[in-house]
Amino acid sequence: MKRRIMSIALAALTILGLLSGCGGGGGGNASGGAETEAGDGGKVLNIYVWNQEFQGKFNDNYPEVEKLSNDKSITYLKDGTEVHWIVNPNQDGVYQQKLDEALAKQGSAPADEKIDMFLVEADYALKYIDPDVNVALPLAQLGITAADVPNQYKYTLEAVTTADGEIRGLSYQATPGMLVYRRSIAQAVLGTDDPETVGAAVSDWDKFYETAEQMKAAGYYMYSGRADTYRVYSNNVSAPWVDGGTVVVDQSMMNWVERSMQDTQEGINHNVPGQWIDEWNKDMGPSSKVFCFFLPAWGLDVCIKPNVEGTDAAQDWAVCPSPQSFFWGGTWLIAANGTDNMSQVKDIMLKMTSDRDILNSLAVNNGEMSNDQPLMEELAQSPEFGIELLGGQNYLGVLSDAAASISLVNVSPYDQGCTEEFQNVFGDYFNGKIDLEKAKENFATAIGERYPELKSGGVRWPE
To answer: Which of 78, 187, 207, 275 shows its CA 20 to 30 Å from the CA of 284?
Structure first.
């Protein structure tokens, strides 16, 4: 896969911004890209994020945290440094837009306004590690090498490694997927909530839909809505979304369209139109009739827990393997080229992604699949490890093998936009507002508007 794909607009804006502040500091790109001065000793550390997830984990686990401001927007460290959290939503590309605008001003921004660190997801990590754009500082310039993070899952390093071998980010998590199901519904319909027995009942798609018919007959929905299965299909495509400027819709994506329509029409799913919305949250709540969700480990703490905490459903969950393997997301910490807090950025990146005590805490307290393969394999075998949400079940055994086999070979910088536009456009098709051909036409239009550089390449559909 070509690793240096990048939005033309971001490349131009960022290079101009960096050149405007070009200096002789250590933040320049060794491969010859634009440079901006990086330094140390700044008293304000600005971190761009799309929600409060990492912020909370940082505040709870980073040992240098002293206190928080009243509104929790500022974290004060023991040495007097103020960590400012700049939050913009991920949806519809808002986070990337705001980040791109700030990065374009990095070279001329006052010291206390420079971006020091920003977070990226797998869907667009390649965009920001591109050496030609040079907004992500190579970790070698922070004094970090692969030898400093020997236990991290291989794919988490490959995801942020450039074609010339520079590592430009670190992650604190691995994100293989699993099936998270409600014990009480399993007991009512299948006669048991035992993870091995339930796992056998959903071990492939044929068995999954046999079980779905049982759920339907008993008055339950197998899953919430079409977005829940999306990642299972999109993670099993045969090629990246974009090939030489052309958007390529894989057959797996059309299989998702066909299956989603059928499941909605037949009442297999609850016809919830998306995720992170009230209907989806309620489907995880104590009175829901939805049996299962396709989630990675982080979904336990981020998705399930807030909707059941303090209710009878707080321990009414268990996990088993998905009928088809998948992964979802992942968060990488990126040191911004031009940071004036190099020592602190280095310390944060290393401690939050490789300190065993912190990673153990994230697994125990947040249900994370932490980015330490030996630690996760050790905990997966421990009869003493389990989390309350799952009634004490050890979820790591379900995920351990899957985490080691994740591949990002088909990831592209355009994944977030293609994913959002594909689901949005076909939502109208699922709701009967447009036919299939019109949905395809609308998708091509939407992609051309979101990524003008792809407009001339068009969209290629499976035959």
So the answer is: 207
